[in-house]
Design brief:
Blueprint (H helix, E strand, L loop, with lengths): L1 E7 L2 H13 L5 E14 L2 E14 L4 H15 L10 H12 L7 E2 L3
Antiparallel strand pairs: 1-3, 1-4, 2-3
Helix pairs in contact: 1-2
Length: 111
């Protein structure tokens, strides 16, 4: 099993994405954690955003399909102003992590 984390700009987008993922059988369960604060540096500027965290429980064998669907739903439900590529969420997330020298840790075998 695999636990996937992503954020949404508000609860409406979060609930919509969660419902799509569960009904499309890309996730067994999605927990919605409202009112989180994300503090990060992006393009040399400090940002502080209120967001909603999704905790997505899925099977590692369908992660690619899940990731593609999350990206698609984010573009439809919460388009980014400077979105100019098909993998915009992954691209921005990866750039943010590389810019800040973080490492990504996958959590597998979640009960």
């Amino acid at each position: 099993y695999q636990l996937v984390l992503t954020t949404c700009p508000d609860e409406i987008v979060a609930k919509n994405i969660a419902q799509h993922l569960v009904t499309e059988k890309l996730a067994a369960c999605v927990n919605i954690v409202p009112n989180i604060t994300s503090i990060y540096c992006w393009q040399d500027e400090l940002h502080c955003d209120n967001e909603v965290q999704l905790l997505i429980k899925t099977d590692e064998n369908i992660f690619a399909a899940l990731s593609d669907r999350i990206n698609q739903l984010h573009r439809i439900l919460a388009p980014l102003e400077d979105a100019d590529s098909a993998g915009v969420i992954n691209t921005l997330g990866k750039a943010l992590i590389e810019d800040n020298s973080y490492s990504i840790v996958e959590i597998n075998n979640v009960a």
